[in-house]
Amino acid sequence: MEFSDETVMAYADGELDAATRATLEAALPHDAHLAQRVARQHALRVRLKDAFDPVLDEPLPERLLAAARGAVPARAAGNVVPLRRAVPARWSWPQWAALAASLVLGVVLSPWLGRAPGGAPLVTHDGALQAGGALARALSEQLAATQSTTAPVQIGVSFRARSGAFCRSFVLRDKSALAGVACREHDAWQLQVLAAAAGPQGATYQPAASSLPPAVAGAVDELIEGEALDARGEAAARAQGWSR
Amino acid sequence: MGAPAADLQAQLVALLPRLRRFARTLARNAHDADDLVQLALERALTRSEQLRADAPLAGWVFGIVRNAWIDELRARGRRERLFAPAEAGAQAATTDAHVAALSVQEALARLPEEQRSAVALVLVEGLSYKEAAHVMQVPIGTLTSRLARGREALQALLGDT
Residue B83: is its pLDDT beyond 70? Predict the structure, then answer.
């Protein structure tokens, strides 16, 4: 009697109905090829279990235990500042205090905000954090499709946000390795999120556009409406001055 | 409303080792897998009213984990297309080469998501065909054909033909 692959598979998985199972088991002792097919399916299951079962014995991460118990997720890592997510309107002083306290950005941002050869890349306007200087120019003019890989600002993805505004992600190729997303609103590039792309030890790290910090990539996912702009869409958006 | 919140939380804690194992079959990186579990736990707790009293909790949460993973794959696809055009060629080059000597994890990671989930739910998590089909929200026939194809592909990748 011939048994199909699906039948052999179902037998190995304990999913055969009793009658077919009995027929197959009666044939097994006399059919070496059938026995081999069954053994092969068993072997795969054993191999998979051996590969993944050790996970069961690992100590459970505290954050997962907390999440299972309904604790509020402690998402805010030390090097990430979600600028707009919680506070859609304007920054207030307590938020600036939180920013200053933030381990990495406190160090990273202070020189950026002060020094201004050709304009600081981050400026405050009416309490909101905006792009300035070379960053603002790159956001307005640089096209990801044609930019030089050595340009000090690397533009990542350009897209339309759910608000209708055009937004662009960027990485600063300098010691700060700062990455972020800015959206064009009120004739300025409003920062939505900023994060350090490299750890403290990464002072010489040159971030690739693909190595966006998860917080920045996550902000893109949250903001984006539909798909991101392709090269043609990017050029068209620039031609209309990034206005809605 | 289903079970009281504290009861659900206790059950989720008990389920954690299996959730982590299942997530590891989807996301190879252990940290990514735990992120997936954390997201799924948060979603499970906020959607507990969707949990039917007569349905097994494990299958319901596995489904949430898998859907979170599919969301993540979509987001990654979007990012990879947009952020890493230069790396696309490098990745394509390894797709066909080096099929020999793959670890089980590597081999599983090469399967299409549908086959990978079917294999993981039945062969690693030990779900019945019916339960696995329910998690993946497909008919049993679809589940078994994905499972059969996934098995064949895995055995080929693992050099067991």
Answer: no
Whether residue A244 lies within 8 A of chain B, CB to CB, comes out as no
Q: Delimit the domains of chain A by residue range.
A: 5-55, 80-239
Nearest C-alpha neighbor of B148 from the set A14, A13, A1: A13
**B48-74 pLDDT tens trace:** 888 777 778 899 999 999 999 998 888
Amino acid letter for position A13: D
Cα gap B98→A63, rounded to integer Å: 37
Query: In the CATH hierarchy, which top-level class contains the domain B1-97?
Result: mainly alpha
The predicted structure's pLDDT at residue B73 = 85
CB contact under 8 A, B16 and A49: no
A70 in B contact zone (CB under 8 Å): yes
Interface size, chain A vs chain B, as Cβ–Cβ contacts under 8 Å: 111
Closest CA–CA distance from residue B92 to any residue of chain A (Å) = 17
Residues of A in contact with B147 (CB under 8 A): 9
| Segment A189-239, tens digit of pLDDT | 988 887 776 543 333 444 444 456 777 887 888 888 888 888 899 999 999
SS3 of chain B: helix, strand, coil, percent, to 5 = 80, 0, 20
pLDDT score for A107: 42
Higher pLDDT, A217 or B121: B121
- Domain ranges (residues) in chain B: 1-97, 98-161
The rounded distance, in Å, linking the Cα atoms of A156 and A234 is 11
Q: For residue B43, is pLDDT > 70?
A: yes
Quick one: which of A48, A113, A83, A65 has its CA closest to A191? A83
Chain A contact set for B13 (CB, 8 A) = 65, 68-69
Q: What amino acid occupies position A36?
A: Q
* Cα gap A180→A105, rounded to integer Å: 12
Domain B98-161 CATH assignment equals 1.10.10.10:
yes
Task: Note the pLDDT of residue A73.
Answer: 52
Query: Which of B25, B34, B160 is the closest to A40 by Cβ?
Result: B160
Which candidate from A10, A50, A228 shows the least CB-CB separation from B82? A228
Low-confidence ranges of chain A (pLDDT < 70): 72-120, 124-127, 176, 197-212
Binary contact (A10, B144; C-beta < 8 A): yes
Q: Do the domains spanning B1-97 and B98-161 agree at the CATH topology level?
A: no
